Amino acid sequence: MRYSFRFTLLAAGVLTPILSHQALARMPEPQPPSVVFGDLYRAVEMAQVFPDQKTFADAIPTAAPADIIKAYEAEKGKPGFNLTDFVTAHFREPVLKTVSYQRRAGETVSDYINDMWTVLLRQPGGAEQYSSLLPLPVPYIVPGGRFSEIYYWDTYFTMLGLEQDKQGALAQDMVRNIASLITRYGHMPNGNRSYYLSRSQPPFFSAMVDLLAQKSGPSVYKTYLPVMRAEYDYWMQGDSGLKPGQAQAHVVKLADGTVLNRFWSEADTPRDESYREDILTAKTSREAPAVLYRNLRAGAESGWDYSSRWFADGKTLGTIDITDLLPVDLNSEMFHLESDLAYAYGLAGNTAEAKLFADRAAKRQAAIQTFMWDKPAGDFSDYDWRSHSLTHVLTAATVVPLFFHVATAEEGQSVAKVVQAKLLAPGGILTATSNSGQQWDAPNGWAPLQWMAVQGFRNYGAPDLAKTIAERWETRVNEGFARDGVLVEKYNVAAPAGANAGGHGGEYALQVGFGWTNGVQAALMAEYPLPQPEAAAASTPADSTTPATLPKQ
C-alpha cells in the first residue's frame, strides 16, 4: 500500500497530515521592504537613518506602502524636507522586547538559561499589517538582541537546550513552525522575514525530526515525511535537466555526472538587512554588482556570514565566490536528509522511494569522500567546481561529516588529529585558522560548531578530544557569564583564561541572549558537568544588543 499524506494549514495555522507531498500548498511570497519601498528604502539605508540597517527592514509602516510612497514623492523635493522626520512620521521602529532582567545573587548559568526561555519566547499570531515579519502558528524562541525572529539552523541547537530543560512541547512547536514555513513557501527561509525568502540556511530540518523522534518514536518521521521531501525538492530543483559541468540554483553536476549542492540565492540585489554595507562592498569589488550581491546572499544562506572560507583571496569580503564552491557541511547535511527520507519512506511502506533515497545518500557519501577529502592534509574542505580542485582551507566545517556519519573510520581519526593540532584553542575549537576580521574566522568560536565537534568525535572513537572541547567551551562561556551575567552569540576561544570572552568581527555588535549558545551550553553541561560560577547581582537588559555590563568590541 502506497503511503502518502500532506500538510495543510488550518485556519489557526496548525499543520495536519492528510495528502501527498506533491500537493503541498504554496502561498505567494510577500515582497521585501527594499522592493516595496524602492527609492525610499535606498534613501533611508544609504543615509544611515538608523545605525543598524536591520532596524528599517523590520520597521512597521503606519499606513499602506503605496500611500507612504506617494507622500514621499510629493515631499522629498520640497525645501526643508527631512528624511529622518519623514521616516519617524510614517514608520514605527521594531520593538526588540528588551526585558529588564534582575539577576539574583548566586544565580548560575543554568538559572540564566532557564529564565531566558521566557525572555526569548514569542507568541504566535498574525504579524502587524505591512510588517516584514512572517506570522507563525505556535510559540517560538528567538535568538535575542537584534534577531527578533526565528532562524533556520539556529533552531536545532536551541532545541537541544529546550529538550534538556524539559521544554519539549516548545521544541515541538519550533519544528511545527518551520514545517509551516516550508509548507507555505516551498522552503524554510533564512528566517521568518519577507526579506529572507530568497534564500534558506543550512538544512537542519531532518536533524530536528531526529531530536523529536528520540522521545516520540519513529512515527515522527512519517508525520514530517512530506515536509522533508518538500525541502529536498527545493534544494535539488533543476537537477534533472543539468548536463555535466552545469549548475542551476543550488545544484551542480560535475563532469563525471556527480550531483552535489551549493549555497545560492534567487535574488541578486543588496540584502535588506545590510543594504548600505552591500553597496559599499560592491564599490570595492571587481565583481559585477549582481554577481557580488548574489554571492553575499548565498554567504548569508550558509550561516557562515562571513568567513575567509568563501573568499577568493582568502581575506577580502569583496572577493566572495561561494557559489563556485561545493561546501562539505552542506553536502553532509543533504546526505543526512537523504538518509532520513530513505528511512521515513521505509517506515511508510514505500520501498521504491526508500531505495531511491538510500542510493542517493550512498552516492553522495562517496562523492564527499572523493571530492572533499583532502588526503594529504587529513581533513575535509570545500570543492571548487569551476577549477576542479579543493580549496585546502581548514575550518571547523571539517567536523560536520563526522557529526552526520559521512566519514570513514580512518577519516574520522585523521580529522581528530588535525583539529587537535590546528583548531583546538583554550576556549574550544576555532572556526578557522585565518583571522580576517570576519566573525566566522579566528579567534571566534561558535556554539553549533562546538556541539558538532563534540558529538562527531564521540561518533568516531575520540572521546577524550570530545570531552576536552566540551569542557573548554563550557568554561569559556562560564567565564563570560561570571563577568558579564549574560550569554552571547559567539566567543573568543583563542584568548587565555580570564580575558574578555566575547567574540567580535563582522557587520554588527556582539549580541546577547542567546538562543543557540544557551541550547548547546545546557546540553553540554548535562553531558560534561562542571562547577557553575555565580554572577554578581545586577540589573541589565537581558535581551538587548548592548547591555551595560558587556564590554564593547
TrEMBL record:
It comes from the Bacteria. The keyword Signal applies. Keywords: Glycosidase, Hydrolase, Signal. One of its GO terms (molecular function) is alpha,alpha-trehalase activity. Residues 1-25 form the signal peptide. Residues 534-553 are annotated as: Disordered. It holds the Pfam family Trehalase. GO terms for biological process: trehalose catabolic process. Residues 535-553 have a biased composition (Low complexity). The keyword Nuclease does not apply. NCBIfam families: PRK13270.1, PRK13271.1. This is Alpha,alpha-trehalase TreA. The lineage of its organism: Bacteria, Pseudomonadati, Pseudomonadota, Alphaproteobacteria, Acetobacterales. The gene is treA.
